[in-house]
Amino acid sequence: MKKIYAIALLGLMVLGLAATASAAEIKATGKWQIDATMQNADFLKKGAVSEDKQFNIEQRVRTAFEFIANENLKGVLDIQIGTANWGTGAMSVGAGRSISTAAYTLGADQAGNGNIMLRRGFVDFKWPGTKVNFLVGYQTVSLPAAFGGGSAILDDQVAAAVMVAPLTDNIKLLAGYARPYDSNPSQTTTAGGVTGSGTSTDVVFAAVPMDFTGFNITPFGAYANIGASTVATGLNTSGGAGAVMGLSGVNSTSNQGMRAYWGGVAATVTALDSFKFMGDFNYGKVAGSGNRNSNNRAGWMADIAVDYTGFKMMTPEAFFVYSSGEKGNSTDGGQSGSNRMPSLGNPQTWAVGSFFFGDRNFITSYTGQDGYVQRIMGFWTAGVSLKDIKLIDKFSHTANLLYVKGTNDKRFISERTTSTAANSNGAAYGGFLTTKDSLWEVDFNTKYMIYDELAVNLDLGYINANFDKNVWGASKASNAADIKQYGNNDAYSARLGVVYSF
């Protein structure tokens, strides 16, 4: 009899769960990816101590769920496991189980050092009786961009509240508030913690997308109030988080409040048959307290690109990108301020080509870090691409050829007075380009669709580098001795990946 009661109770529980689940439709999407990479991308010749040749296999699982109550309300949960290198921890994937050093036979049951990361978690709803849409929670916020795949200013997951309101049939207003950092969210004094005021960074932003037949244009602006104590080491410091995030000026010091401003426009024109024109202009400025000249950072970035869409078998594209660089001078090595465009967060998707500026097909760019584009700001590049080449069923290819040259004055690194500033401020060899540095890049990328949801990617890249060893050999870079002795070398990359998208 007890078994019958237990079975009946279990059945009621299942029915209850089913009834609860029926209150919302659940839709799952995801991108599960495994990549193998062989590359040499440190631009140093054989014999250098820091020579970097590597073969890695990475794995990342992203899965998103939409909990749809009705056409006006849903919740979004997006989680990620990894990125993890195969073999991180003995015989493990790194995001799963690992061998126990005490008993190898129990390895399959030992927890690994991986974790589940929240990428997005927000509520998406329309205000009753209107077309005004709200997105509140942890979400992806990206400022407008017509070319490059995403914004070079802000394109990241962040806690935010966003409103999208139609003004006319062709014009919308997008406005939002975000808090990317709060070093004392509980507003309490704790031993060893960040105390006092000014521990948060707050951002407001707005854009006005205007979409008409044959063209669209989106002006935008953003403002950030950066607290003096945001992120204990200083979001605003030259050697702290501020440098990593692309906010600080050259000689910023900790415990300084800062104000940041951005503005720009993104435009696309399709009015001409078989042609698509894209263009962006971005400007940003960060102003600090105290000696304002040394704490300021201000710069701009612009691009233009044209696609020819008249071919069925491919889409040729030509592009040009320019970003302002550090000026420097003979007396202070650029310490009167920074002339590169500041950014907020780690721009995730902006790239041209698929090697030096990053590769959106694969998990990790050769730099091994997100946000690489803002740290190499100070360049111009021109190139051509043949996109979506289709010659054989289920195969597609992309070919890129680009030339890149720096716009940063060489004296910015050769005349630095702070020994660590050349590295901490993003002026690292192999990324930061002076006017004496240039490179050619050629890529050939292939995708084969095994099924509609399963793809195999093979990306091949080569960079012919010309970094001035005299300039870098006399710099404050940590590997200056190797650069001076061995000079620069070319870089290559061969990447093979399997992607299951659903």
Brief digest:
The chain is mainly β. The chain has one domain: Porin, CATH 2.40.160.
Query: What is the fold-level CATH name, i.e. the topology?
Result: Porin
Architecture (CATH level 2) name: Beta Barrel
Alpha-beta content class: mainly beta
Average pLDDT over all residues: 81
Count of individual helical segments: 8
| SSE pattern | HEEEEEEEEEEHEEHEEHEEHHEEHHE
Folded structure, characterized:
It is a single chain. The protein has helices at residues 2-21, 241-244, 292-295, 372-375, 411-414, 421-424, 469-473, 480-486, and strands spanning 25-40, 53-70, 73-85, 116-126, 133-142, 155-166, 172-182, 200-207, 210-212, 215-226, 258-269, 275-288, 297-308, 315-323, 379-389, 395-406, 438-449, 454-466, 491-501. The protein has 502 residues and is mainly β. It has a single domain (27-501), classed as Beta Barrel (Porin), CATH 2.40.160. It has an 18-stranded antiparallel β-barrel. A hairpin with a 6-residue loop joins β13 and β14 (315-323). The protein is globular. The two termini are 46 Å apart.
Task: Give keywords.
Porin; 8 helices; 10% helix
SSE blueprint and pairings:
Blueprint: H1 2-21, E1 25-40, E2 53-70, E3 73-85, E4 116-126, E5 133-142, E6 155-166, E7 172-182, E8 200-207, E9 210-212, E10 215-226, H2 241-244, E11 258-269, E12 275-288, H3 292-295, E13 297-308, E14 315-323, H4 372-375, E15 379-389, E16 395-406, H5 411-414, H6 421-424, E17 438-449, E18 454-466, H7 469-473, H8 480-486, E19 491-501
